[in-house]
């Protein structure tokens, strides 16, 4: 498969807006070179120009654009246009238009809203993709296929409903099996014919079978993957060597991205941090999103396919980036394994939905613009960091984020019904945070992961156990790994059926050495505490931490209690335990704590397991990520300062600054929002 030997820099280029302005197209090339750009994504929403009338393709204008870019040293990331279709198609074939969750078919409008199943749409896409591949698939300029744009959403049309029923038949074989799994005789909800089954149309459809809703989400994911696979197949005859990607959306959970790892040759995603929104944990959240996207394909780099070079028009408040923030935000992606910094979009349009979205070139068309200068500076820095291309991101810690588990937590009734996903994403971030603060590489993985490369696995609220996960975690601990689990673990199986005879299910009770009995959901004004026992052995922790929200009651079997509840009728019962299991150990945090406890507790594990990338104390807001050349072992430490003041970091050893080639000395000084990349001197 083709790859490239530079860090890609560029973005969505939509020259279709300017075909009647040749002077602008010419100026674009001059400015791209000035900004150090070497890759443009072209053709993303161009179907109406590529096929103005049914069956009449016009690719000449696109060929001209690709040639011009290539002659000037700029690669093309070539998109397929299925993210939006022309009016003639919607008018002639209404089935290509999606039926929304409210059961109504959309009009010709907006984008990202085609039916996943429609044979007509699939055929139109097949013809288009294969024609594009025939014309451009072997062109040396084309380094990557960008399939569609931000696949997402669901279609509830009759075609999709019929496909869903087929999918269910394949999965369950008989209605009896399906009814059993849905526990459908409760409320007299059993199906006596497959045709009675529908998706959950808002307001009128079934919401009581949680596993039906999960199945619908699983089906929608499978249809989307199948749609992407069909797009890819249509390219392959004429373009066998060019890798394909699709731009994902981080923690978007409308689709289970874990299922896309095979169909994507390269993972890419669109990153729109709301910088300067006052949320102190935002840098960690973005780092975590990079770690989730990258880890979809273990051991490989990914691409940041879109980001705003300035403000983002769809966010609640379109704040400008403070000086330095654009470089830091861009290099944060590279620090986490991205082989690109790409923007949306190259030049602001005059009209339309995104005329005020940040772009490299503003309406003034000038290079003498703060945003343009920032972008050009990123171009220079990426060039100086060329040696990082294709290096890996070695992680010894995994944090589990599983989309099916998130769906199941979102659907279940109980605990805190008013809280989004019952707080799972907040827990995930809170548990990721200490690793970010101390500069530890982390993979954010789902339940399909192979845990053997890790020393530590952290699994917040592992409520739904997909097939094989419990066994993998047991083996991981048995073989010497350290596992951290929490309240509300191992409650339901992969079909959302509760385990009988005690939880955590599937043998995780033995791994943790305890049984969960009840769980108390607290009001915001209710508080409890977690009190460390004198012999906990957890050095450096406070005696007591505040807890609340969720308090699991447990009965220990083989586990040792490290901390107890301080209040309520369950005062004095275990709030934190550890269990030796095989050669490893499993900690169990029974209640939702504040960040303070997680920082201190996970800090002990970070220290004891020697997990920090750089063995030094980091000032607040500073983190370190590590990329490594798998063949030479050369290491790249990305030291990133997300605070708004200058910092000094004591360096443990001798380092060279990769970009300047100069020796670093004992202390590294970084300005506010500064970032430096260091090689150790061996
Ligand atoms: C998404 C889309 C782009 C553009 C940007 C704006 O990521 O893929 O086409 O709309 O948002 O932020
Ligand atoms: Zn449909």
What's the structural blueprint in terms of helices and strands?
Elements: E1 8-13, H1 22-34, E2 39-42, H2 47-50, H3 60-71, E3 75-79, H4 87-92, H5 119-136, E4 142-146, H6 158-172, H7 175-182, H8 210-236, E5 244-245, E6 247-248, E7 268-270, H9 282-295, E8 303-306, H10 325-335, E9 340-343, H11 370-384, E10 397-400, H12 403-411, H13 424-437, E11 442-445, E12 456-459, E13 464-465, H14 469-478, E14 482-486, E15 492-493, H15 508-512, E16 514-521, E17 528-532, E18 544-556, E19 560-565, E20 574-581, E21 584-589, E22 591-593, H16 595-608, E23 622-628, E24 635-641, E25 647-650, E26 655-657, E27 667-670, E28 675-680
Parallel strand pairs: 1-2, 1-9, 2-3, 3-4, 4-5, 6-7, 7-8, 10-11, 10-12, 12-14, 13-15, 14-21
Antiparallel strand pairs: 16-18, 17-18, 17-19, 18-22, 19-20, 20-21, 23-24, 24-28, 25-27, 26-28
Helix pairs in contact: 5-8, 8-12, 9-13, 10-11, 13-16
Overview of the molecule:
- The chain has about 675 residues and is of the alpha/beta class.
- The protein has three domains: about 10-80 and about 105-150 and about 220-390, TIM Barrel (Alpha-Beta Barrel); about 395-610, Rossmann fold (3-Layer(aba) Sandwich); about 620-680, Golgi alpha-mannosidase II (Immunoglobulin-like, Sandwich), CATH 2.60.40.
- It is about 30% helix and about 20% strand.
- The strands form six sheets. Strands 10, 11, 12, 14, 16, 17, 18, 19, 20, 21 and 22 form an eleven-stranded mixed β-sheet that branches.
- A hairpin with an 8-residue loop joins strand 19 (about 560-565) and strand 20.
- Helix 5 (about 120-135) runs parallel beside helix 8 (about 210-235), helix 8 runs antiparallel to helix 12 and helix 9 packs across helix 13 (about 425-435).
- The protein is globular.
- Bound molecules: alpha-D-galactopyranose (GLA) and zinc ion.
């Amino acid at each position: 498969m083709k790859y490239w030997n530079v860090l890609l820099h560029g973005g969505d280029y939509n020259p279709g807006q300017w075909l009647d302005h040749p002077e602008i197209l010419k100026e674009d090339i001059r400015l791209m070179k000035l900004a150090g750009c070497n890759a443009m994504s072209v053709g993303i929403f161009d179907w109406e120009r590529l096929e103005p009338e049914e069956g009449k393709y016009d690719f000449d204008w696109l060929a001209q654009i690709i040639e011009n870019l290539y002659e000037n040293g700029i690669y093309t990331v070539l998109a397929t246009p299925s993210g939006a279709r022309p009016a003639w198609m919607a008018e002639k074939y209404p089935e290509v238009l999606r039926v929304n969750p409210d059961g109504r078919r959309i009009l010709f409008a907006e984008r990202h809203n085609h039916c996943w199943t429609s044979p007509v749409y699939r055929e139109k896409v097949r013809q288009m993709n294969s024609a594009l591949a025939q014309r451009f698939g072997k062109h040396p300029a084309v380094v990557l296929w960008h399939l569609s744009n931000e696949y997402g959403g669901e279609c509830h049309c009759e075609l999709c409903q019929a496909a869903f029923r087929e999918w269910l038949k394949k999965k369950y074989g008989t209605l009896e099996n399906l009814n059993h799994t849905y526990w459908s005789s409760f409320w007299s909800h059993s199906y006596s014919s497959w045709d009675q089954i529908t998706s959950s149309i808002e307001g009128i459809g079934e919401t009581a079978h949680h596993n039906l809703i999960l199945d619908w989400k699983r089906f929608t994911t499978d249809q989307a993957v199948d749609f992407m696979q069909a797009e890819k197949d249509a390219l392959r005859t004429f373009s066998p060597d060019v890798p394909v990607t699709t731009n994902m959306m981080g923690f978007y959970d409308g689709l289970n991205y874990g299922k896309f790892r095979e169909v994507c040759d390269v993972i890419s995603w669109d990153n729109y941090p709301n910088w300067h929104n006052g949320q102190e944990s935002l840098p960690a959240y973005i780092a975590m999103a990079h770690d989730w996207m990258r880890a979809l394909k273990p051991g490989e780099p990914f691409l940041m396919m879109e980001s705003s070079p300035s403000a983002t028009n769809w966010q609640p408040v379109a704040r400008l980036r403070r000086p330095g923030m654009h470089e830091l935000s861009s290099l944060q992606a590279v620090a986490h394994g991205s082989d690109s910094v790409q923007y949306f979009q190259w030049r602001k349009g005059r009209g339309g939905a995104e005329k005020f979205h940040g772009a490299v070139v503003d309406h003034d068309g000038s290079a003498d613009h703060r945003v343009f200068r920032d972008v050009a500076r990123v171009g220079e820095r990426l060039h100086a960091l060329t040696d990082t291309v294709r290096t890996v991101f070695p992680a010894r810690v995994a944090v589990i984020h599983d989309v099916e588990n998130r769906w199941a937590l979102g659907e279940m009734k109980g605990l805190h019904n008013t809280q989004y996903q019952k707080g799972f994403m907040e827990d995930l971030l809170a548990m990721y945070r200490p690793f970010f603060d101390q500069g530890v590489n982390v993979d954010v993985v789902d339940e399909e992961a192979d845990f053997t490369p890790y020393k530590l696995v952290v699994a917040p609220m592992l409520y739904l156990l997909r097939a094989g996960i419990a066994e993998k975690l047991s083996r991981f601990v048995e073989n010497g790994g350290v596992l951290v689990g929490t309240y509300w673990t191992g409650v339901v199986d992969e079909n959302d059926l509760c385990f009988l005879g005690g939880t955590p299910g599937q043998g995780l009770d033995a791994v943790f050495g305890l049984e969960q009995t009840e769980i108390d959901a607290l009001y915001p004004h209710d508080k409890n505490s977690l009190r460390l026992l004198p012999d906990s052995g957890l050095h450096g922790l406070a005696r007591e931490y505040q807890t609340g929200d969720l308090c699991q009651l447990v009965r220990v079997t083989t586990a040792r209690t490290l901390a107890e509840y301080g209040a309520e009728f369950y005062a004095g019962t275990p709030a934190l335990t550890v269990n030796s299991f095989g050669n490893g150990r499993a900690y169990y945090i029974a209640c939702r704590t504040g960040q303070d406890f997680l920082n201190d507790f996970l800090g002990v594990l970070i220290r004891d397991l020697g997990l920090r990338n750089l063995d030094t104390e980091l000032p607040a807001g500073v983190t370190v990520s590590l990329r490594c050349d798998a063949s030479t072992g050369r290491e790249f430490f990305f030291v990133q300062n997300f605070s708004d003041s200058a910092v000094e970091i004591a360096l443990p050893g001798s380092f060279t600054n990769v970009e300047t080639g100069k020796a670093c000395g004992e202390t590294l000084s970084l300005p506010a929002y500064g970032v430096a990349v260091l090689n150790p001197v061996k």
